[in-house]
């Protein structure tokens, strides 16, 4: 019997430290940016171009922040979680979109006033300069990325197509750096400002390359992951068992996910985020996926021995996030995969209640495993079925309280479709379950 006291103080302190460092980094760099704008090397032609210059420098700064958010830095991921970082990435992305619209607009308005020509005539005039043309191309690409990120448009794309489109961000970065080299003026005031500016960008690009390229390459060379077995769980759900060398050195935890690629079976850019559906034991990993897109549907045809390229582990949806001794696990549909892994994790001590929401019992993937774990752990498992109607709302505050009367004394982990997860979180707030006890996995993954 495990009776370890949950690490409330340590976990809360780690998150507070991460938030504090982020705010210090942001405010310090913003202060330097504003000082750089106060004394530019060359004066602007007029007020409009001056505004354009201000917007341009802030645009470049926000782009550097965006690189840090998509670099998947372990320090931030383990303390704040990929969901929160990805939400910030989304809002930062739309900030970049508006700055990309406003920066060239004010610059061209200023130059059209200075050159005494119509606004539209200034576009081909400035486009004759290669650095400006590259900036215009980058702006168009940012527009494409932003449009496909709007939820209404996002639902029309498969995950694979959406992810491929978002690879354009790396082209935008290259074009943006070239544009700054030739067109930047605010950060060229003196040697300090130039050293600071390129130091910031070197740090951002270095973090991106380390987190997204060098570290995954090193890990995959070390572990040499291969498909060991492919097991059909139902007509549209399959589990893939993966083995490799020294998997204990991955330090993966139940509740985390990897980005999975299967070179030779799929194209290299086809990557999907799938959670571990079993607690890692240092010898093998298991993912379980529902056939939604082309890649997930193709998992059933994976030959044993297929090479696997995995990025991760990612996410703070683990037992390390708990603040209370007892736990409530809530799963919906295929969102059961990280919940099932957490249920197996022996570090999740105390009394455990599991709520599993599906339309019909036949849709309850891994139900047999959950029942076995419930018996082994002396836990309570509730299978909640049926369509959600006015008379069947298992996650309403009253129904949640009826199922788990001591819910405010538990950590609550929830993973499932976004509408269900949002409903659960609303009910938890209504029931006054403290924010530190609410843990959700939404898979809002950045490219």
Automatic annotation (TrEMBL):
<dbReference type="InterPro" id="IPR013112">
    <property type="entry name" value="FAD-bd_8"/>
</dbReference>
<feature type="transmembrane region" description="Helical">
    <location>
        <begin position="132"/>
        <end position="153"/>
    </location>
</feature>
<dbReference type="InterPro" id="IPR017927">
    <property type="entry name" value="FAD-bd_FR_type"/>
</dbReference>
<keyword id="KW-0812">Transmembrane</keyword>
<keyword id="KW-0285">Flavoprotein</keyword>
<feature type="transmembrane region" description="Helical">
    <location>
        <begin position="50"/>
        <end position="70"/>
    </location>
</feature>
<dbReference type="InterPro" id="IPR013130">
    <property type="entry name" value="Fe3_Rdtase_TM_dom"/>
</dbReference>
<dbReference type="Pfam" id="PF00175">
    <property type="entry name" value="NAD_binding_1"/>
</dbReference>
<keyword id="KW-0472">Membrane</keyword>
<protein>
    <submittedName>
        <fullName>Ferredoxin reductase family protein</fullName>
    </submittedName>
</protein>
<feature type="transmembrane region" description="Helical">
    <location>
        <begin position="91"/>
        <end position="112"/>
    </location>
</feature>
<keyword id="KW-0274">FAD</keyword>
<keyword id="KW-0479">Metal-binding</keyword>
<dbReference type="InterPro" id="IPR050415">
    <property type="entry name" value="MRET"/>
</dbReference>
<feature type="transmembrane region" description="Helical">
    <location>
        <begin position="165"/>
        <end position="182"/>
    </location>
</feature>
<feature type="transmembrane region" description="Helical">
    <location>
        <begin position="194"/>
        <end position="215"/>
    </location>
</feature>
<keyword id="KW-0408">Iron</keyword>
<keyword id="KW-0001">2Fe-2S</keyword>
<feature type="domain" description="FAD-binding FR-type">
    <location>
        <begin position="220"/>
        <end position="320"/>
    </location>
</feature>
<keyword id="KW-0411">Iron-sulfur</keyword>
<dbReference type="InterPro" id="IPR017938">
    <property type="entry name" value="Riboflavin_synthase-like_b-brl"/>
</dbReference>
<keyword id="KW-0560">Oxidoreductase</keyword>
<keyword id="KW-1133">Transmembrane helix</keyword>
<dbReference type="Pfam" id="PF01794">
    <property type="entry name" value="Ferric_reduct"/>
</dbReference>
<dbReference type="InterPro" id="IPR001433">
    <property type="entry name" value="OxRdtase_FAD/NAD-bd"/>
</dbReference>
<dbReference type="Pfam" id="PF08022">
    <property type="entry name" value="FAD_binding_8"/>
</dbReference>
<dbReference type="InterPro" id="IPR039261">
    <property type="entry name" value="FNR_nucleotide-bd"/>
</dbReference>
<feature type="transmembrane region" description="Helical">
    <location>
        <begin position="16"/>
        <end position="38"/>
    </location>
</feature>
């Amino acid at each position: 019997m495990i009776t370890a006291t949950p690490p409330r103080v340590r976990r809360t302190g780690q998150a507070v430290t991460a938030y504090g460092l982020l705010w210090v980094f942001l405010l310090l760099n913003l202060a330097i940016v504003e000082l750089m704008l106060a004394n530019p090397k060359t004066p602007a032609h007029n007020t409009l171009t001056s505004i354009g210059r201000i917007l341009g420098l802030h645009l470049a700064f926000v782009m550097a922040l965006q690189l840090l958010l998509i670099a998947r830095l372990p320090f931030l991921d383990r303390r704040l979680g990929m969901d929160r970082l990805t939400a910030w990435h989304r809002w930062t992305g739309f900030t970049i979109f508006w700055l990309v619209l406003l920066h060239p607009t004010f610059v061209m308005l200023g130059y059209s006033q200075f050159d005494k020509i119509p606004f539209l005539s200034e576009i081909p005039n400035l486009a004759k300069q290669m650095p400006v043309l590259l900036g215009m191309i980058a702006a168009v690409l940012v527009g494409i990325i932003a449009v496909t990120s709007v939820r209404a448009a996002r639902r029309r794309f498969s995950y694979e197509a959406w992810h491929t489109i978002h690879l354009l961000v790396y082209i935008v970065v290259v074009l943006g750096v070239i544009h700054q080299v030739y067109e930047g003026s605010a950060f060229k005031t003196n040697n300090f400002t130039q050293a600071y500016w390129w130091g910031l960008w070197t740090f951002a690009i270095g973090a991106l390359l380390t987190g997204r390229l060098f570290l995954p390459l090193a890990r995959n060379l070390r572990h040499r992951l291969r498909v060991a077995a492919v097991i059909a769980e139902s007509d549209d759900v399959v589990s893939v068992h993966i083995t490799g060398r020294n998997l204990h050195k991955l330090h993966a935890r139940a509740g985390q996910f990897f980005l999975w690629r299967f070179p030779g079976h799929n194209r290299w850019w086809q990557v999907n985020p799938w959670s571990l559906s079993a607690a890692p034991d240092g010898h093998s990993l298991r993912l379980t996926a529902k056939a939604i897109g082309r890649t997930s549907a193709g998992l059933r045809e994976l030959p044993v021995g297929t090479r696997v390229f995995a990025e991760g582990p990612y996410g703070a949806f683990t037992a390390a996030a708990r603040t209370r001794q007892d736990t409530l696990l809530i799963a919906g549909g295929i969102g059961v995969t990280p919940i099932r892994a957490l249920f197996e994790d022996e570090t999740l001590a105390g009394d455990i209640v599991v709520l599993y929401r599906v339309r019909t019992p036949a849709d309850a993937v891994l139900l047999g495993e959950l029942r076995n774990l419930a018996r082994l752990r002396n836990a309570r498992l509730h299978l909640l079925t049926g369509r959600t109607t006015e008379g069947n709302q298992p996650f309403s505050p009253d129904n949640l309280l009826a199922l788990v009367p001591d819910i405010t004394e538990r950590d609550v982990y929830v993973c499932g479709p976004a509408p269900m997860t949002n409903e659960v979180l609303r009910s938890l707030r209504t029931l006054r379950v403290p924010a530190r006890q609410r843990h959700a996995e939404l898979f809002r993954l950045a490219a």
